[in-house]
Write a structure and sequence with these properties.
13 helices; 2 domains; mainly alpha; flat
Amino acid sequence: MAIDGGLWDVAVTIASQRVRGREWLKADVEDLASHALTKLHEAAQREEIDNHEAWLSVVIRNRVIDLALKRDAEARHLVIAQDELPIKAVVRGGGAPVEVRRRGGSVRGLSLEVIQKEERELLRLLAAAVVAVMPDKWDRLVLDDRIYGGSSTTIADLARRHGKTPNVMANYLVRVLGKDGQPGAVASVKTMLDNLSVRQADAYVRVLVGHTDELELLSDPFAAAIGHLEVAASYSAQHRQDAKLSIARLNWLRGHFPNKRGLPNQILRRLVSAACLYVVEQADANHDRYDRGLADDAAVLTATFTAVQRHTT
């Protein structure tokens, strides 16, 4: 049976009904409809589908459930809730939950739907960055399990899987993610992303994730970044201006490169190294040869500068 082209309106109507009561999904109605129609076309190549509307309804419902579970896992597992901790856990130090908050004034003039979509995207990027920025593979495995392991994953489950007692695992997660009003070790990651646009944050996190295993091996990331900027400065007067600011930021970061004492400093070192790699990467948020092509590089280095200033221990 051929698929009726008018099914787009049907899919949009179904999706609109499915997202009622879920404000965070209202901006994704058309994405849900498109996803369902794509699946319908794929299925129609394999088998006869008698009731297209019912089929679309099931696909959209399942997609909404999947997105809700993923959102719950990312949002809930970027913080430590008091009722998750083992009864006998002794939490020393502590830290503040990592939350995604848009900067004051940065959303001016945007619709509520756009704001919500940006917040969800920043949350996704924050989750990916928190995993990638950890210095050891064991840390990355634990946090990957914590954030993406599903809403039913408990601290006891993590402890069992990764060879720790529940109390030790609880203390570790609180030290990393934070709790009760004071910053955890990954607070600098949030500071960094909060000072970037979604487009810049996405490009930066792609560099961070793509070079996770190389960040500790860079001998002089500053020299490579400065060398690239000196060449790019010749592209235009605006390039020269952005390169000048970026080089100033790099020289400051080189002079204030955090030592290796403590997890917060180790995380900052990796953020700085990733920022240097970002500068070297030409095809980032704005290709370096384009008009204002170095503006995003300057923004990433400024965000890194802010994170180092605020979080170096």
